[in-house]
Design goal:
The protein has about 60 residues and is mainly α. The protein has one domain. It contains two helices and no strands. The chain has helices spanning about 15-30, 40-59. The longest helix has 18 residues, at about 15-30.
Length: about 60
């Protein structure tokens, strides 16, 4: 069996690491996006209101 240690791997720079992390995060967000099709219209409106509130508080 071919075992590797940490020393066997090349280090990657912070920019590359951040790009990989961001790409993984985007893919996870797309894959794990909640399915809102089963929500009642009232609950969908409340969810939209929460999203708007979150967006406003970030700016």
């Amino acid at each position: 069996m071919n075992s590797r240690t940490v020393d066997d791997f090349e280090q990657i720079d912070q920019v590359t690491c951040r790009s990989i992390r961001d790409a993984i995060g985007e893919r996870l967000q797309q894959s794990l996006r909640p399915d809102t099709s089963g929500l009642s219209s009232h609950l969908e409106r409340l969810m939209d209101e929460l999203r708007r509130h979150d967006n406003e508080s970030r700016h």
